[in-house]
Write a structure and sequence with these properties.
The structure is a homodimer of 201-residue chains. Chain A has 201 residues and is mostly helical. Helices cover 66% and strands 0% of the residues of chain A. The first copy, chain A, binds a DNA duplex (30 and 30 nucleotides) through α3.
DNA sequence: TTCACATTTTGCACGCTGTACTGTGTTGTT
DNA sequence: AACAACACAGTACAGCGTGCAAAATGTGAA
């Protein structure tokens, strides 16, 4: 039965690994860049993955795994577990330029994404929330975490630009200056996450 | 002094308006699409804006304005104002495919972004928060709102794809099915925002 | 052993993107 | 009238995702 034709030279696994290498090297995760790293024509990728979005989904899933889903298990308090994983994910994503954008061009449908959803849901139901509220809580946490990371990268990448601000901007209030200076602080990230969790559990 | 050379045929204002028209028509906001709508060569845009990121920043700022910053003022409770504006922004961004992505490729440095920052900060300080906590609270709210909208669009756009899931996925728990079905619900959005605000004020 | 066929991989191509460079024409200032 | 500043077009390049046809390659059946 089955496998006629030349032996496949790649696997999805190897493609994702190459994509991770591309990401680590600072380049964008394009189909062509990944193919080049595998010494293969770009089209070959399409034998294993339907399109670029699938590639992005797979890499995003790998990043979720890299952050260490095991942090979401164990005997510590559920709240502590969530914070640990969120901080680890933040680190993983901020260390790689362009990593967070993968989450915007591809759905969270990979196996690790599902695992993490389940773990989050379990944590919240064990904390006493109803099924529906657990769903809402988990989605809220994910929204906050990914949103915060996205804003942090967007605003820190941009401050390198000296550019003219398009329109005359009035004096930034002292408090507003502080506002724009602290986007990428881990402490800020944790503070907001703690306040959200205050409302959840 | 000043304006030598031929009279400019465009303004940043007209460019942003054209970009909004492009966005409303469902196309992506590319330099070329905007230029085409203005019956102008793509390069002409660069006379008025330094690069694509600046265009995106300007359009993102316009979207923030379209949501109605006046919702953030007035005599109603601060919490209510925040919720009203967040819901309006959500609607504005979800109505336009690709709108949220503008916030990921461009910094929030436009005048309306600053205005909204100030209004948020004012709301939180008036609620009794210290300057530092107001900064943190405002950033947290922005992170949640933009993150939730991003996840909502990513996951609803993707469900249209029938595609193979890359790897054998086990039975989705009933609760997990619910999880993936409610990404784009306004009620879910408000619930999470309420919980966050519970922790903030 | 030979043939047919399924399957991978390639080569080529198309249309799209952002944007750098060069030249041309218009304008206000000297 | 000459000049300098400026807007704009034309051309071009390198990159992107990906569709399609042909070639290479291996296995199962005859």
């Amino acid at each position: 039965m089955g496998a006629r034709g030349p032996q496949p030279s790649l696997t999805v696994e190897r493609i994702v690994a190459a994509a991770m290498a591309v990401l680590d090297s600072g380049e964008a995760v394009s189909v062509r860049a990944v193919a080049a790293r595998l010494d293969v024509q770009p089209n070959t990728i399409y034998t294993y993955l339907p399109d670029r979005a699938a590639l992005h989904t797979a890499v995003a899933d790998r990043l979720l795994a890299l952050a260490g889903p095991e942090l979401l298990t164990g005997r510590r308090a559920g709240r502590r577990r969530i914070k640990d994983y969120a901080v680890a994910l933040r680190t993983v994503l901020l260390e790689r330029r362009g990593a967070i954008t993968l989450f915007h061009s591809a759905p969270l449908s990979g196996p690790y994404a599902r695992t993490i959803s389940e773990l989050l849901l379990g944590t919240f139901t064990r904390a006493g929330l109803s099924d529906q509220d657990a769903v809402r809580a988990a989605q809220s946490v994910i929204a906050y975490v990914l949103g915060a990371i996205a804003l942090s990268t967007v605003n820190t990448c941009a401050d390198a630009r000296p550019g003219a601000p398009l329109a005359a901007v009035p004096e930034p209030t002292p408090i507003a200056a502080q506002f724009h200076a602290t986007w990428d602080s881990e402490e800020q990230f944790c503070w907001g996450l703690d306040r959200l969790l205050d409302g959840l559990v």
